[in-house]
Amino acid sequence: MFRVMVVTAQTDFGQFVAEHLENEPGLLYVGCETPEQAIETARKANPDVVIFDIDHGNPDGIDIIGEFRGELPAIIVVSETGDDVVVYRANTLGAHYYLVKPFPPELLIRRIWQIAALARGTDSSHAAAEQIVNLAVQYFERIGMPSHLKGYHYLIEAMVLVVQDHTLASQVTKELYPRIAERFQTTAIRVERAIRNAIEITWERGNITQLNELFSYVDEERGKPTNSAFIAGMADIINLDLSQR
What we know:
By secondary structure, this protein is of the alpha/beta class. It folds into two domains: 2-121, Rossmann fold (3-Layer(aba) Sandwich), CATH 3.40.50.2300; 125-243, Arc Repressor Mutant, subunit A (Orthogonal Bundle), CATH 1.10.10.10. Helices cover 56% and strands 11% of the residues. The protein has eleven helices and five strands. It has helices at residues 11-21, 38-45, 64-67, 84-93, 105-119, 126-143, 150-164, 172-184, 188-205, 208-214, 227-243; strands at residues 2-7, 27-33, 49-53, 75-79, 97-100. The protein has a five-stranded parallel beta sheet, with helices on both faces. Strand 3, helix 3 and strand 4 form a beta-alpha-beta unit. The longest helix is centred in the middle third of the chain and has 18 residues, at 126-143. The two termini are 23 Å apart.
């Protein structure tokens, strides 16, 4: 899961980004801040990507990017001007990408994925990560897992992590939960509880036919798999899907 923050004095741009990230699996909108408060907020929100809208009436507004040097993994600048001098200055100050308005939201989302993956050092596996997210969403919809649950989003992140490193399936308490907790700025205990809640609700209200088909090995007396069994089983299913493509 990549965390995305917006820095702008124009609240409508922050709303634009929030609306288009709301239903984008794998991307989490963590808020919008004014340039004056951006650094302090970013240190607390721990975003993977910060989108700077430099069209806020301050001719020196672009300079704030330089204040983030070394603080942030990835920076995308957006502006109505495509002037070469401004673009060069943004890049010199530390921007990783520059987008000229107007642009379609799909382009912004693609750039967020690409820049975040590069910053996290997973550029070579970006396409695979996006495939994993898409497959996880498809399977969770298939079994009827409610997407508004926190555990749903934690499980999406778990799928990306475990499919790419299956050893984490046997280290859910010591390694997996803490990593997910770090991404969402919460605790490992809350991650474990939220995932357990999502699984329980899915087995109570979800598509039992699909659940039985995908998890036929589940002990009938238990009625549902443990967190680790669900994570490992779903990761295996996604891995099989990927291997057949």
